[in-house]
Every structure is written in structure tokens, then in C-alpha cells.
Amino acid sequence: MSSDLRKLTSTRIREARTLLDAGEWSGAYYLAGYAIETGLKVCISTFYKKYQIVDPKIGKGVYTHNLIELVNLANLSSNLANEIKTDRTFAVQWAVVKDWNESSRYDIWSESDARDLYRAIKLRRHGVLRWVKRHW
């Protein structure tokens, strides 16, 4: 399952880039954030082995789209706090990403919004996706 979610994470960020290049700001914004959601779900899925019964609190919770809740379910809260404290550039990127949610698909996003979110996720040394992938 986690390998499928890894592929999905890569696919979503690639699709976001394609939409960004095509000037489709709202779709790019939504899919970029969705890449972080699926990436965090990869982190959660690594706790479980095939045929293992999942803790009901986590099993039900994994259906959330809230990035902060997913960070908590992945047991990454203290790691995130440390990263924010020690890497100010990452802290700025997280501030951009953390408020994304699934209902963003119903909003109209500007070019600036979409580019800012994509950059916050993909920034080479300080991006949120880089941080998430370190915990796969």
C-alpha cells in the first residue's frame, strides 16, 4: 500500500506542475496540497504490516484530509516542531502548506497562491515534500 501511495504522491505533484504550466491555478493548488496529504499517509502506512489489524483510532483518522491531524497520526508532531524551530526557511514553507485542505478544490485560487503552494512543497532543501519523504 505504501508504494502505491508513494507513486500517487509523485503523480499528484507532477500533475500540479503540469497544471501550473498550463495556467490552471486552482487545479494546481489543489493537487499540490493533495500530494502532501498522500505523502503523510505514506508515513502513517509504514507503521503497519500486511495483514495487521490497524488501531481503530488511527484507521478511522487516516481518512482525514487535515494535514496537521495527519502529522499527528504519523507521530511527526515533535519532529515537525523541531524542523520549524531549526529551519526558518522550512517554517515559512510549512506556514504556506499547513492550511491547505480538501475543500480547496471548491475555491478559485490565483496564480500567486498556486505558485506559492507549489514552491513551498517542492523547494529543494527546505520544502515540505522533502521533509515528508524523509519519514517514509
What would your notes on this structure say?
This protein has 136 residues and is mostly helical. Helix content is 68%, strand content 0%. It has one domain (2-133): Four Helix Bundle (Hemerythrin (Met), subunit A), CATH 1.20.120. It has helices at residues 2-21, 25-45, 56-61, 67-73, 77-86, 88-97, 111-122, 128-133. The mean pLDDT is 92.
Structural class: mainly alpha
Named at the architecture level, the CATH assignment is Up-down Bundle
Helix content: 55-70%
Assess the beta-strand content as a share of residues.
under 5%
- Note the run of SSEs as H and E: HHHHHHHH
CATH class: Mainly Alpha
Biggest beta-sheet profile: none
User: What is the number of strand segments?
Assistant: 0
How far is the first residue's CA from the last residue's CA? 12 Å
* Shape category: globular
Quick recap:
The protein is mainly α and 136 residues long. 68% of the residues lie in helices and 0% in strands. The chain has a single domain, classed as Four Helix Bundle (Hemerythrin (Met), subunit A) (Up-down Bundle).
